[in-house]
């Protein structure tokens, strides 16, 4: 009778008293042996006492020496308990199918890592529980549910079988009991603490307390509580491996005491919350009564005072009529809403924003053209095109004060001063400066704001920056406009279309404000490294000003005027202590930097200054400060030798110095978002079947240029004195070094054609010559872009001759004067002219049609 009652209790779906849900759903449990159900955990109940069931006593006395192993995920089976398990692994199901007809006794062992799908012996603990499978239920999802009864602790001695499932030799573990008075007191305290914990646990099953009180054996009581406590697998495994009953009881007692304290604390918090809610409702009722009484007496109270203060602030802000009407409607709502209502704070925050925005506050422009030119020259070297455009804007503003603000976009490689130029523009105009970084923004609400219906709604970044600036006509820098992203939350670049349109942004509507704000007086200045990623509609709304990289001469001047003084100040040095020479600056520029801007150059200058500072600080003749001024007799002359000593081996070498004149190697020019780059094109031939191999991580356009260049050479082979039949038995391999860098574009067509011609004609290309241009199958050389940046890159590496398409001659006005002095430019119309310059061959009689 007792056994039948136990099995009925086992199959009931009841909630365990203290174990929290693990969060693993049915999908996770389908492939594991683990405690089921997914919704709520079942109570692991104690089995009938040993001795009441003769079959179980006999099974426990005759445990097999070799048992199959059933790995368990996220749980530990204890002796003397009955628990349900869900078996989902194919190997575990096969083990049950093959083992249960022979013997119902199985060793249940916990996994060390529950994420392992097919555990081996190293993934399992060495102490397990031998148990009997009482019932097996097949489920519709190919899983098997079993009800098991833990019999005895066993130790796994050695593995007998690995496939298709684990079998191992085991030995029973003998428990050490105790009979001292202290032990009896611990057992009684454990039973009392467990009873209180079950009573404090919400939704605890009724039979849990009865089952626990009916357990007489201390070891069985400890195992029952351990299986139901909220402990992790390692902690439960430690209890399973503990054969000393006294130690196991004390360990479980500590765990029960801790969870009992936590349950008492949670109960106290819940009671306090319920009391607070009841008290809040009472206060709300009394507050409404007080408000009604004050209204009858004509006294508004504190809430009325805050509303009146808001009304005064809105009137002082001199809002436009339609905005004031919206504010008045919100004020009327605020009068009838209780101060404790969440809507009250939302409306108050909205009205405070309306009062803080600079609707009619504008800074006065300083239209002194000479002063503006001095400020721009003070902060930035060269950049004449940008400075001229800003002076033109000031002149127009002086003649037409009501004109609309321009939308400028500064495009250039990193480190040329685009972002810092915005602050200089604001200083020159006498306006406030606001900066909004757009890099990585993917949410359209960052620009337009959130609707006030959402919790935590706020205005967009543009309105927030205007609020901080305090004027409606600041210089607003939209930094990194080419780094905007788009995802399911919207496209921020599309939200900028209205902002950056001078004829629409006078009525910009932020979703949070829900009223129009005039942005027409704001000077928007966007920056970008590359305009190719900017949407065409957004690009059309901006006036693009290209800022090319700096020449070596420019970098020397920038370092002398700006970088060196700034690094001396930051590193606590004086000009006397650290005297830079032009040779030191050129050494840092040529051998330690390779960039269009000057950021890396400033870092290298800072590194040298830090080294000098270490010498100065360690100089025994240095006596720190004297009369408030830095004092030291140490002086460092920073020339090329000292830069080499401070910075170590050179990072970069001139490509031309490493190159040897050999057929099949041409030098092209490329334009990247980081500025111009020199691009080598290498060609080689070997026995084959007339195929062409292209490597170097090149894009589809460049691959097509290589195919076109080869076809063009084949068509002109007779005029070049080459037998095209030789290509039938040879394969061509064209490689563009720096294979880790993606490369694409048609401008390498001329270089690829020249490399192929040089290889097959066995003629080396002239040294210190670079070229760029797109080729057609008729032999024409078409114009390309980025001439200024490409010429700068060529000059930087020591190129002396640059071959350009004839139609790019008009771009020579943009080429830097220093580059024109260093390099010779040759303009070609067709590939015959290219070979004449590159290979030294006489101009061919072949006429391009």
UniProtKB/TrEMBL annotation:
Pfam families (alphabetical): AAA, Lon_C, Lon_lid, LON_substr_bdg
Secretion signal span: none
Record-linked InterPro entries: AAA+_ATPase, ATPase_AAA_core, Lon_bac, Lon_bac/euk-typ, Lon_lid, Lon_proteolytic, Lon_Prtase, Lon_prtase_N
The protein's Enzyme Commission number: 3.4.21.53
Gene Ontology molecular function: serine-type endopeptidase activity
Binding site for ATP: 412-419
Inducers of expression: By heat shock.
Classification via HAMAP family: lon_bact (MF_01973)
PROSITE patterns named among the record's database cross-references: LON_N, LON_PROTEOLYTIC, LON_SER
Keyword set, alphabetical order: ATP-binding, Cytoplasm, Hydrolase, Nucleotide-binding, Protease, Serine protease, Stress response
Catalysed reaction equations from the record: Hydrolysis of proteins in presence of ATP
Skewed-composition ranges (Basic residues): 1-22
Chain ranges of the Lon N-terminal domain: 67-260
Name of the protein in question: Lon protease
Quaternary organization: Homohexamer. Organized in a ring with a central cavity.
Location of this chain's protein in the cell: Cytoplasm
Keyword ATP-binding recorded: yes
Lineage of the organism: Bacteria, Pseudomonadati, Planctomycetota, Phycisphaerae, Phycisphaerales
Region entry Disordered, spans: 1-58
Family label: Belongs to the peptidase S16 family.
Function: ATP-dependent serine protease that mediates the selective degradation of mutant and abnormal proteins as well as certain short-lived regulatory proteins. Required for cellular homeostasis and for survival from DNA damage and developmental changes induced by stress. Degrades polypeptides processively to yield small peptide fragments that are 5 to 10 amino acids long. Binds to DNA in a double-stranded, site-specific manner.
Domain Lon proteolytic per the UniProt entry, residue ranges: 660-841
The organism of origin for this protein: Natronomicrosphaera hydrolytica
Residues annotated as catalytic: 747, 790
């Amino acid at each position: 009778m007792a056994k039948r009652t136990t099995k009925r209790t086992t199959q009931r779906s009841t909630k365990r008293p203290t174990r929290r849900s693990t969060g693993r759903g049915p999908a996770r449990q389908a492939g594991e042996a683990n405690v089921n159900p997914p919704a709520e955990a079942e109570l692991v109940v104690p089995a009938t006492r040993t001795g009441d069931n003769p079959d179980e006593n006999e099974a426990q006395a005759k445990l097999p020496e070799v048992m199959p192993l059933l790995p368990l995920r996220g749980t530990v089976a204890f002796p003397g308990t009955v628990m349900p398990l869900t078996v989902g692994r194919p190997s575990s199901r096969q083990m049950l199918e093959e083992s249960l007809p022979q013997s119902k006794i199985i060793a249940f062992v916990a996994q060390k890592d529950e994420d392992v799908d097919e555990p081996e012996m190293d993934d399992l603990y060495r102490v397990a529980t031998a148990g009997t499978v009482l019932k097996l239920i097949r489920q519709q999802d190919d899983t098997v549910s079993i009800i098991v009864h833990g019999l005895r602790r066993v130790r796994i001695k050695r593995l007998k079988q690995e496939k298709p499932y684990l079998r191992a030799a085991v030995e029973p573990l003998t428990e050490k009991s105790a009979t001292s008075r202290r032990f009896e007191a611990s057992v009684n305290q454990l039973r009392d603490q467990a009873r209180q914990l079950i009573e404090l646990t919400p939704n605890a099953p009724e039979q849990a307390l009865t089952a626990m009180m009916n357990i007489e054996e201390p070891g069985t009581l400890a195992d029952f509580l351990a299986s139901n406590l909220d402990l992790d697998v390692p902690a439960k495994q430690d209890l399973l491996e503990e054969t000393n009953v006294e130690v196991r009881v004390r360990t479980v007692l500590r765990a029960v005491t801790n969870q009992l304290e936590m349950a008492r604390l949670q109960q106290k918090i819940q009671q306090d919350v319920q009391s607070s809610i009841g008290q809040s409702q009472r206060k709300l009722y009394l507050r409404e009564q007080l408000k009604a009484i004050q209204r009858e007496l004509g006294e508004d109270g504190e809430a009325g005072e805050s509303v009146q203060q808001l009304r005064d602030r809105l009137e002082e802000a001199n809002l436009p009529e339609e905005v004031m009407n919206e504010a008045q409607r919100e004020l009327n709502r605020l009068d009838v809403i209780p101060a404790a209502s969440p809507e009250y704070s939302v409306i108050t925050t909205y009205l405070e924003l309306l009062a803080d925005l600079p609707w009619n506050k504008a800074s006065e422009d300083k239209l002194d053209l000479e002063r503006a030119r001095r400020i721009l020259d003070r902060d930035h070297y060269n950049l004449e095109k940008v400075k001229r455009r800003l002076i033109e804007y000031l002149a127009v503003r002086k003649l037409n004060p009501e004109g609309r603000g321009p939308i400028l976009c500064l495009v250039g490689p990193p480190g040329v001063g685009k972002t810092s130029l915005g602050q200089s523009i604001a200083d020159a105009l006498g306006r406030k400066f606001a900066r909004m970084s757009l890099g990585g923004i993917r949410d359209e609400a960052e620009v337009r704001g959130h609707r006030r219906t959402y919790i935590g709604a706020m205005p967009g970044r543009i309105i927030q920056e205007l609020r901080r600036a305090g004027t409606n006509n600041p210089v607003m820098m939209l930094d990194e406009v080419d780094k905007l992203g788009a995802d399911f939350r919207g496209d921020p670049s599309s939200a900028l279309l209205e902002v950056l349109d001078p004829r629409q942004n006078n009525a910009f509507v932020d979703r949070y404000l829900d009223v129009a704000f005039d942005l027409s007086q704001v000077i928007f200045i966007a920056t970008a490294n590359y305009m190719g990623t900017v949407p065409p509609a957004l690009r059309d709304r901006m006036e693009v000003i290209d800022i090319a990289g700096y020449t070596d001469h420019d970098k020397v001047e920038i370092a002398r005027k700006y970088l060196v003084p700034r690094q001396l100040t930051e590193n606590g040095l004086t000009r006397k202590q650290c005297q830079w020479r032009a040779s030191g600056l050129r050494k840092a520029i040529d051998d330690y930097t390779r960039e269009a801007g000057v950021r890396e150059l400033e870092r290298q200058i800072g590194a040298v200054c830090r080294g000098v500072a270490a010498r100065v600080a360690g100089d025994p003749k240095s006596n720190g400060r004297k009369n408030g001024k830095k004092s030291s007799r140490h002086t460092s002359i920073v020339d090329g030798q000292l830069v080499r000593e401070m910075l170590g081996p050179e990072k970069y070498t001139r490509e031309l110095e490493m190159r040897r004149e050999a057929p099949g190697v041409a030098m092209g020019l490329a334009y990247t978002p980081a500025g111009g780059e020199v691009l080598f094109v290498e060609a080689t031939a070997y026995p084959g079947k007339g195929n062409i191999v292209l490597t170097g991580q090149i894009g589809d356009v460049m691959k097509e240029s290589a195919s076109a260049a080869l076809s063009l050479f084949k068509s002109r082979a007779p005029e070049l004195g080459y037998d095209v039949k030789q290509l039938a038995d040879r394969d061509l391999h064209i490689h563009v070094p720096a294979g880790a860098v993606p490369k694409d574009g048609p401008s390498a067509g001329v270089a690829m054609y020249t490399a192929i011609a040089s290889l097959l004609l066995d003629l080396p290309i002239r040294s210190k010559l670079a070229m760029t241009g797109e080729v057609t199958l008729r032999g024409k050389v078409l114009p390309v872009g980025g001439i200024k940046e490409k010429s700068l890159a060529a000059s930087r590496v020591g190129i002396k001759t640059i071959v350009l398409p004839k139609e790019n001659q008009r771009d020579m006005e943009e080429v830097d004067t220093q580059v024109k002095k260093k390099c010779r430019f040759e303009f070609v119309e067709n590939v015959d002219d290219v070979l004449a310059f590159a290979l030294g061959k006489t101009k061919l009689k072949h006429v391009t049609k």
